[in-house]
Amino acid sequence: xxxxxxxxxxxxxxxxxxxxxxxxxxxxxxxxxxxxxxxxxxxxxxxxxxxxxxxxxxxxxxxxxxxxxxxxxxxxxxxxxxxxxxxxxxxxxxxxxxxxxxxxxxxxxxxxxxxxxxxxxxxxxxxxxxxxxxxxxxxxxxxxxxxxxxxxxxxxxxxxxxxxxxxxxxxx
Length: 172
Known about the structure:
Blueprint lengths: L12 E4 L2 E4 L16 H19 L17 E2 L1 H17 L12 H7 L6 E8 L3 H9 L15 E7 L2 E8 L1
């Protein structure tokens, strides 16, 4: 795998932990409109992932009870990525402050439609003009912030639209 920084990976790849990893959306109708975002949005998604990974390795953690040394590395999951991108697109249009999208689907329903059978899950979003502002909004969203540092949620997906980013975490 090639070393990367946010925005450096090719289409259908995502920079995670300094490596370009495959990020091909599941081949289901639900994901058909969110497969390959513009380069600027993909770079923003990768920056959110980098901020999350950095925070998960830092002690003390910004919130939550886990010690950064106890947290497993995150695994990028295309189903969670699809779910996060669908919610980000919806939130960008509606400006909503809840995890139920404008079609009435909950987080777990979106994850299932994207092919991710969540046993446990968490989802958090932050509005902002850039990745740093969205990240700061996520950290201030207590108690949701604790989801970002839950050692029981090793799978991650991220989605960004022009004014919001979403992190979907889960365990199958």
